[in-house]
Amino acid sequence: MIAVKRRAVAGVLVGSLAVLLAGCGKNDHPVSQGGTPPPPKQTVLKVATTDAVTSLDPAGPYEIGSRTLQANIFQTLLTITPDKPTPVPDAADCQYDAPTIYTCSLKKDLTFPNGHELTSSDVKFSFDRMLKLKTPGGPAALFTSVASVTTPDELTAVFNLKRPDARLPYLLTITAASILDEEFYPTSKLLNDTAMGSGPYELTSYKAGRQAVLTKFTGYRGARGALNGGVELNTVADSAALTQAVTSGKADVALHGFGPTDLDKLRSGDKVQVVEAESAETRFFSFNFKSATARRPAVRRAVAQLLDRATLVKKAYADHVTPLYSVIPPGFGGHVDAFKAEYKEPNKAAATMILRDGGLTGVVTLTLGWTPTHYGPGAKAEAIEVKRQLEASGLFKVNLRGVEWPQYQQLVKAGTFDLYHAGWTPEYPDSDDYLVPIVREGAVFQNAYRSQNANKLMDQEIAEQNQLDREELLENLQRVLAHDVPALPSWQGRLTVVAGKDIKNVAATLNPLSFVYFSSLRK
Fold it and tell me: Which helix (H) or strand (E) holds 132?
C-alpha cells in the first residue's frame, strides 16, 4: 500500500503542533522541571567562509559550499557523527532484509518547519525526483543501483536494488539523499532560492553569494541537534578577509579558504583557536595509458619508487598537508599504506633496477601536466618538485606543461600528458568512491587503465555485506593499484576551522567529506 499523506490543514493546528513538538523528545537539551534551571540562552553564531554556494537544492550540483549549507538544513535517513565512522540513524533506522532489499523505518512524528508531517511518501518523492531530474553535475549517477523506493506504510521506505550494494548506507548519509517536503518542492525543476528541510536548522534568509541565515529548528529529531540558536553564514572574498573577520570578532568561526601563511600567523598568535582534522581531499599523479611511455609498467613503478612525499609536502605546502601512501586515505575502511609496503623508501638503485628489468636503459622522457588554478596555489610547486626529484635520479627527463582548467581537461582526455596532476574529494563517505574514478572504464580521470583483477575485486567489495570481508577486499585492491600504479597518491588534505577562544566543540563540526556541521558549536 502506498502511504497516504496526513497534513496539518489549519493555521491553529500547525502552530499547536509546532509548540507541542518543541517541548517533546529533544536530545539536545533537557526540559526544565521543578527546580532545574533552564538551559542558557542559545547564541546565534557568525560564520565566515570563501565557499560559493551554487545550489540550495540537494538534487543539484553539490560542491563543498552547497553541501555545507544543505547538510545543516536537511535531514537524511542516516548520518555520520564525529564519534562513529559508520552510519547511524538520523530520520530512520535502516537494515538489509535481503542483499537487494534495504528497509528504513522512520521515527514517529517527524515534521518540517512549515508544520507538514514527514512520512515515507516524502522519502520516495525525494529519491524519485532526484533520479528523474538527472541534473548535470548532480548526484543521480551515485544511485544507479536503486531500482525503486516503495512505501508499504507511512513510516516505512524500502529501497529495492538492482544488485547488491554495500555502499548504500553511506550514500544515504550524503546531502543528495536529503528528505524533501513533497508539497513544497516542484517535481520537474530545481528550487534554488529557498529550502525546506527537517534538519537541525531552518533557512530563514538567503542572499545568493552573500549570506544565509539559519535558525535552530526545534522540531528536529535526529543525531545532530543544535547546541546554538542559529548561524549567520557570510561569504567573503579570500584568506585575508577570513583572517580579518575571525581576529576582529566579526566572525565567531571561519572556514575554507585560509592560505598557509595566514594559518601560520593565526597559530602563532593567541587570539583564536585553530582546529584541524584530516580531510577527504586527496591529490595524486595519474598515468595516462594512452601514452606509449606511461603504458610501460617499469616506467610507472620506477616513478613510484622515486617519489619522496615527505619532501614534496614540505617544499610545496609547508607541511600543511599529509603524505599519502595509498589511493584510499587513512580514516576510510580498509585503508592500508600499500605504496609504502610495495616501494619502501625512495631509492634510486631500486628504481634503476626496475627500469632495467623492464628493458629500459636510457633516460626516460615524460611530459607532466598540471593546471595553475583548479587545484590551488600549491599545484605549480608540487609539479616542480616532482620534476626535481625524478631528474635528480638521472633516470628521467621531465617536461612540465601548465594549462588552465578547461583546456587541461581536453588534453587529459586526448592523452597528451604521460602523467598529470589530479585531485579528488569523494562524493560519499566510503572507500569505494576513491576507487571508481581510477578503476572503472570511462571513469572521471579517463586514464584508460584497464585491469580485470582490479574490476573483479571492486565488484566483490561492492556486493560484500560483511564489513570485515569487504575491508579485506579493499586492502587487496589497494595492493593491486600499488603494483600497477595507474595513479600515484601524493597527499591528503586537512580541513581547518579557526574560531574564537570562547567557541566550544569546534572539532565536532568537521565532516570527513570536508564540509562542516554547525550544530555542535556553542559559546
Answer: helix 120-133
Measuring CA to CA, which residue among 447, 318, 338 is closest to residue 385? 318
Q: By the 8 A CB rule, do 77 and 123 touch? A: yes
Single out the residue of 486, 453, 430, 457 nearest to residue 142, CA to CA.
Answer: 430
Nearest to 328 by CA among 444, 452, 477: 477
Residue 444: name the closest of 479, 494, 409 by CA: 409
Q: What string of pLDDT tens digits covers the 523 residues of the chain? A: 344 444 433 333 233 323 322 333 333 333 333 444 445 567 999 999 998 888 999 999 878 889 999 999 999 999 988 777 789 999 999 999 999 999 999 999 999 999 999 999 999 999 999 999 998 878 898 899 999 999 999 999 999 999 999 999 999 999 999 999 999 999 999 999 999 999 999 999 999 999 999 999 999 999 999 999 999 999 999 999 999 999 999 999 999 888 888 999 999 999 999 998 888 899 999 999 999 999 999 999 999 999 999 999 999 999 989 999 999 999 899 999 999 999 999 999 999 999 999 999 999 999 999 999 888 878 999 999 999 999 999 999 999 999 998 899 899 989 999 999 999 888 888 999 999 889 986 555 678 899 999 999 999 999 998 999 999 999 999 999 999 999 999 999 988 999 999 999 999 888 778 788 999 999 9
Whether residue 396 contacts residue 364, with contact meaning beta carbons closer than 8 Å, is answered with yes
Domains and CATH numbers, the chain: 44-271+501-509 (3.40.190.10), 280-494 (3.10.105.10)
Nearest-CA neighbor of 106 among 129, 88, 123?
A: 123
- State the number of CA atoms in the 13 A half-sphere of 15 facing the CB: 3
Please say whether the dihedral angle defined by the alpha carbons of residues 417, 423, 427 and 428, taken in this order, is positive or negative.
Answer: positive
Place of cell 531552518: 202
How crowded is the C-beta side of 468, counted as CA atoms within 13 Å? 0
Residues 340, 478 contacting (CB under 8 angstroms) = no
Note the pTM of the prediction, 2 decimals: 0.82
> DSSP state, 189?
S
Q: Find, among 54, 86, 92, the residue nearest to 70 by Cα.
A: 54
Interacting residues of 209 by C-beta distance below 8 A, sequence separation 6+:
52, 53, 235
Q: What are the residues whose beta carbons fall under 8 Å from the beta carbon of 78, sequence distance 6 or more?
A: 87, 88, 89, 90, 92, 94, 169, 172, 173
The residue to which cell 526540559 is assigned: 31
Alpha carbon 51 to its chain centroid, in Å, reads: 14
